[in-house]
Specification:
By secondary structure, the protein is mostly helical. Helix content is 62%, strand content 5%. It has a three-stranded mixed β-sheet. Strands 4-5 form a two-stranded antiparallel ribbon. A hairpin with a 4-residue loop joins strand 4 and strand 5.
């Protein structure tokens, strides 16, 4: 394998042609010389965006990937939104009925973050953070974006609430205990930042007054329960929310000044 890898990398660099390879170490680099590096996941996403495959086919391929136990790549949010949209509601329990695909994705993330995981906890020279921390960061980022997609979707209010609860319960940093990797101070800061982001996210929905009202109605109930269990996070959350808003207003003022001059 080492000789094959060396051969294809040398050929890509010498000829300046893109290198498509499914190797976590190699794809942690963006290029070899002037030759860009990408993987099968990039290729599949491009095929979807160019309408070479349907969303249903894209989901089917990802299902095979998960069943084959290809690890440590978070599924595209389009897949989760698709599955959340199709999921039914358990009226008696007041929760989302997981589709088979959602169940597989949930287990997929749990296994990636388990003690048996092969995600590296050591930082290598050419990247900013260890592989495991990057996976957690991507989970945090993806879950925030997925929440916004849910509330901008055509789901009805009940399904949006249940889908959002599923995301926070199973597909976010709030679902896992990272105490063996991050101290309590780091946990509080990380949670406070994401909660502040949730508070600000409703601004994106202000073009639809009903949608924004429903979002905050759900969010305030969820945050009230969470802060009841984690009261030490409230002040930090509000401070970060204030900083986000002030930063946005400053940037808007600068942009306005530039246009006027």
């Amino acid at each position: 394998y080492s000789n094959m890898l060396k051969t294809v990398m040398t050929a890509a660099e010498n000829k300046g042609i893109p290198l498509c390879i499914d190797d976590r170490v190699v794809t942690s680099y963006s290029c070899i010389g002037k030759a860009p590096i990408y993987n099968s996941f990039d290729l599949m996403k491009m095929m979807l965006l160019q309408k070479r495959i349907t969303l249903e086919k894209y989901v089917e391929i990802w299902r095979i990937i998960i069943d084959k136990k290809v690890r440590y790549v978070l599924p595209d949010n389009r897949i989760l939104l698709h599955e959340l949209t199709l999921s039914e509601i358990d009226e008696n329990k007041g929760i989302l009925k997981e589709s088979e695909m959602l169940r597989k994705i949930r287990q997929y993330v749990v296994e990636a973050l388990s003690m048996r995981s092969s995600l590296s906890t050591k930082q290598v020279a050419h990247v900013h953070i260890p592989e495991r921390e990057y996976f957690i960061f991507r989970l945090q980022s993806n879950s925030s974006e997925l929440l916004k997609l849910v509330w901008m979707s055509k789901m009805d209010y009940t399904q949006k609430r249940m889908a959002s609860n599923w995301i926070l319960r199973h597909y976010s940093q709030f679902a896992f205990d990272f105490s063996n990797q991050i101290n309590d101070r780091g946990r509080i800061t990380s949670h406070a930042v994401q909660l502040a982001d949730f508070l600000i996210a409703g601004i994106l929905l202000t073009s639809d007054e009903i949608r924004a009202k429903e979002y905050y109605e759900w969010l305030y109930k969820w945050i009230a329960t969470y802060l009841g269990q984690n009261p030490d996070i409230k002040e930090k959350m509000l401070n970060y929310a204030r900083e986000f808003i002030c930063s946005f207003l400053r940037d808007s003022a600068r942009s306005k000044d530039k246009k006027e001059h």
